[in-house]
């Protein structure tokens, strides 16, 4: 039995998220159907590194599967793309070590959240215009306290229960993109809605006299009610998943 | 009677082009319906500066209309956006001199065509990946002969009859955008499918030993059969329309 690793990109707009749900169009569902068709094996299960929500995109989602197939990985990639709808693409396929699991083996995830500085109809599916002026210096100050290992309970979706609210943020910062500003954040794991809540809170903190202090107070509260609004799904994208064995 | 000028942006993906067609969803049709609803006048006709094709986008389409309404232009803009679907936005509304006509008064149009250097599912609606490596220097050389006034018959869609095949190209060149390269071309007017045929021909000419010479030979032929393939609609965007009275 081989273990195969796929790197997958998708436009999340027309999906009800990653995870299979009866009667809904999901990325996992569409991908499993394509894999099962190519490998002629209805028992194939895919494991995704990140269970992205409805409307959330990916450029570097990773999925793993086990199969006894002998098809070469490049042939598998091409056969899958022939069967897949045009809003999902398999960017790469590779053999992985026995025991590799896209979610359990991952050591870090890199997400981006794209903000538009003005309304742009061509970018409305992949970015969000918050209807406030974007202040790069204040936004950068607001996210600086996030670096390091902290309890992120304040940014967890209300009602969600995750095993461990402590996350290790290894990199976070804003960068210019042609439509405005983009948040890049890499952490070992994320809580449900965490990036979207961080963005909403950063926008609120950036408008305060002391953005870093405002963010630090929200973190210290460990209470969802202290944080800002949840930014909408369409700005969020899973860019890359890191594994210990990968070259850096 | 006032003359009003609108600047309109749209994602052309889900439209059968600009121009009203019975039983089809068109930008003009959707806009006229919104204008008629806001002004409570079913006889309003919109004139667009460029009759964009199915799948072609706009960031700066201009439309004009005449009405006896007294509504302030900013109120009109907001009321239209409330009624319009989210793939069309009115970016600006302004009073225009009597006799202003979005198409007849225009002195130049600026189009972009976006090429992707690799497949990108998030950009597939607004750019095209030609499945060849993009060579910026060769592509730039290929479009250099287009500057100035020329007979562009070679780039006119087969079967199309335009009044005047001579166009004055005032600016043309490639620029980097995050996904790859973008052609910017400004001319007094364009023939049907002209930009898309220029892009297909530029890609073919860029692969020749002498890209500028290859393009010049296609131009001199004045024959559609001498030119390259028609690049697909989704990469094309009407960015701006120029009028003699505008500040430069």
Major sheet details of chain A = 9 strands, mixed
Q: Alpha-carbon distance between the termini of chain A? A: 28 Å
What share of the residues of chain A lie within helices? 10-25%
Largest interface: A-B, 20 and 20 residues
The proportion of strand residues of chain A reads 25-35%
Tell me the radius of gyration of chain A.
19 Å
* Alpha plus pi helix count of chain A: 5
Structural class per helix/strand content of chain A? Answer: alpha+beta
Q: Name the quaternary structure.
A: homodimer
Let me know the average pLDDT of chain A. Answer: 95
Unreliable residue stretches of chain A:
none
Secondary structure: number of strands of chain A: 9
**Mass-distribution shape of chain A:** globular
Spell out the helices and strands of chain A N to C.
Answer: EHEEHEEHEEEHHE
